[in-house]
Amino acid sequence: MLTALNPYYAYNLLVNYPSGFWLLGAVFLCTTGGEALYSDLGHCGKQNIRLSWSFVIVMLLLCYFGQGAYLITNWDGNHWPEAKSTFYSIMPEWFLPYGIAIATLATIIASQALISGCFTLVNEAMKLRLWPNLRVIYPTTHQGQMYIPGINWFLFLGCVAVVLLFRESRNMEAAYGLAITINMLMTTLLLTYLLYVQRRSAIIVWGVPMLLLSIEIVFFVSNLLKFTHGGWFTFMIAQALFFGMWIFYQARLLRKKHIEFVEIKDYIAPLKDLMHDETIAKEANNLVYLSMANDKSHIDSNIIYSIFRKRPKRADIYWFVHVDISNEPFGVNYSVESIVPGRIFFVRLNFGFKVEHKVNLMFSQIVEDMVKNGEVDELSHYPSLRKHGMHADFKFILLNSRVAIDDALTPMEQFIVKGYRFIKTISLSTAEDFGLELTNVETETAPIKVAPPPRLNLQRLK
Description:
Blueprint: H1 7-16, H2 24-27, H3 34-39, H4 41-44, H5 46-75, H6 86-89, H7 96-127, H8 149-166, H9 173-197, H10 202-223, H11 231-258, E1 261-263, H12 268-275, E2 282-290, E3 298-300, H13 301-310, E4 314-325, E5 332-340, E6 344-351, H14 359-372, H15 383-386, E7 394-403, H16 411-424, H17 430-433, E8 441-448
Helix pairs in contact: 9-10, 9-11, 11-16
């Protein structure tokens, strides 16, 4: 059996055996399984994976050697029954129940690794703005260890669909083999890009990926024969996910391109006049906006639209809050900058990724600290309530951007916008994501201009 390590036999199979090249599609399945280890890299650490893989590859070789020796000894020259498994056949009868139990546990562990890897990929996609926001739970202090309930349900429903579609595990070998080859190709391409970004030598940047790609492309082509036998399912799922991410990304680019920030100093005087304009009903004592702008000199143009044009919103104090989530697990800090003393404030709130998003509670504590320092008044500005010592009220305004109805969008832009709106329906709302008290929140829609409005040939008769 040790002569099987000689690569000549692989070469002889490919060159001299009829349709030997296409047998690589079946041979490839012997190489799979290792990717389950690497998918759990963020949860276990690279050192654990390296040690585990060294052990696993030795055990795999011994297992395949044992199966080969069994076939040569007992079935040399005979036809092997298709429904029979060589893996379980080499086990003694008394050990078979234990072997099945161990194999089942190994399957569960490998599945858990892939599930964890899926959580990691989705979380990174959310940070890159390629995936809608979903609720993420961190069971430990390590950022790489997480649980995403929505994705867990998606995987469950997907597994049920696969079982109902393929019925037996051997029927899904084509879909699995093709998925793994594509995964390997993508990993090699990403590795090439990483080496290029790190400015490694040209030999490493191009030599190592070319060596890997030459092997992986051979396996990929040999697996294409399985496309009609279940490989189509892999392509269908991949295309659906890529298409959704592409729409989400393009919509973000479209929105980012046309979101404007304006100088806050140009609106200080109008804000002061609005505060004292008693012909306008007061919206609240304290009006709070979540701002994308990261400094007190600028403000989102849609916030200005909401305050002055949507429906003039008079308040005694305006708060513009910017939230940053750091890469550290714990820690919460904030800074407050006064734009107009006692009247307009810019608050920058920073907290760790593991800290539960409770912006409403955090903001209340910030106000308490400012009251103790004499920076703001905690009592209501309504005279009838103030004389009884009642506290001021707070109202959060959340803004959703929407393309203006008079924009002349191209068919592709219209498709992207509608697709983005559909994807947002499954996303976590901003209020839920930041832990805002829904009774104190109002959501508004502000238009953004992504194209100049069409010019109408309109004539006045009188």
